[in-house]
């Protein structure tokens, strides 16, 4: 047990990082720094895959979306993320994805860190995508097609620029305003951006294709006729039952990589493939236990659904960074008790309770 962390928790409570403070933390450190170090945290945790108690996320589906809990733990820390996915939220002035999470001490259960994870999820998803592409895509990949230009898109673009070396971006969204927003946000980034009129136009000539669409539907964003030898496909948008982006024949002709196979078979692009459809978990490639790309002509697919271990890594990074920068607020999320056995005492004087009264005697039967 980290006695320093427990002593601080006992003395000052849970460290809370709000959404505005998380944004300020990213501004102070710089987005490239955060993406790079978050990817390094994810890689480090994937390399010790066997140390974690893993489970697929727990999901509550409704007609409008999904709410999920994503837990994971090692011998020292436990984390969970609460996250939703409601594509129609933007019509209500709400984000499609909203999230928060906790990093706790395993030995005591003390919640050490409570943080927003909406912005952080976008960062960790982009960092995970870039880590996978750096591992699986052809060396020298410089052109990426980005299909879906919503809230996640700029993070994906910048992660691939800074971590993979992408120089040119070919973008498409069914909503032209989304593409215009992306272009405006990425002004000055150094990326060469071409706004395309269709998915097929955007994909043509790309080394890497990232799909990050939001509709909860069995969509065919990419079809086999769009795929060229040697492409790496980063399929991000399909992340729950009934939601996919790739035609099944693309998967049949490609080498497919996933995060956590039991979860991916329920939620990923492979959800409609046979149970024996061959996939490789990415941690196996990172550890050198399985091969990644077999040839320059092979099409590779990273079937990304988002796994709790990535949030564990992201929370570690955000907590360490907040402490180093002196950011965040300590809050009394848990009662601080002078006598840990006297929870009732935190109420003080309670109406209807006569503290001087004798204990009641049993009524006659």
Describe the protein:
The structure is a single chain. This protein is α/β, with parallel strands linked by helices. The protein contains eleven helices and 18 strands. It has helices at about 5-10, 20-30, 30-45, 120-135, 155-165, 175-185, 200-205, 250-255, 260-265, 280-285, 310-325, and strands spanning about 15, 55, 60, 65-75, 75-85, 100-105, 110-115, 145, 170, 190-195, 210, 220, 230-235, 245, 255-260, 280, 300-305, 330. Helix 5 links the parallel strand 8 and strand 9 (about 170). The model has no long low-confidence stretch (mean pLDDT about 95).
Please specify the SSE layout and strand pairing:
Blueprint: H1 3-12, E1 14-17, H2 19-29, H3 31-46, E2 53-54, E3 58-61, E4 66-73, E5 77-85, E6 99-105, E7 111-116, H4 118-136, E8 143-147, H5 153-164, E9 168-172, H6 176-185, E10 192-195, H7 199-203, E11 208-211, E12 218-222, E13 232-235, E14 244-246, H8 248-253, E15 255-258, H9 261-267, E16 280-281, H10 282-286, E17 300-303, H11 308-325, E18 329-331
Parallel strand pairs: 1-7, 8-9, 8-11, 9-10, 11-13, 12-14, 13-17, 15-16, 15-17
Antiparallel strand pairs: 1-18, 2-4, 3-4, 4-5, 5-6, 6-7
Rounded to an integer, what's the Rg over CA atoms? 23 Å
- What does the main sheet amount to? 8 strands, mixed
- The rounded distance between the terminal residues' Cα atoms is 52 Å
In round numbers, the mean pLDDT is 93
Instruction: Spell out the helices and strands N to C.
Output: HEHHEEEEEEHEHEHEHEEEEHEHEHEHE
Helix share bin: 25-40%
Oligomer: single chain
How many strand units?
18
Large-scale geometry? globular
Count up the helices.
11
**Beta-strand residue percentage:** 15-25%
- Contiguous low-pLDDT stretches (5 residues minimum) are none
- Helix-strand category: alpha/beta
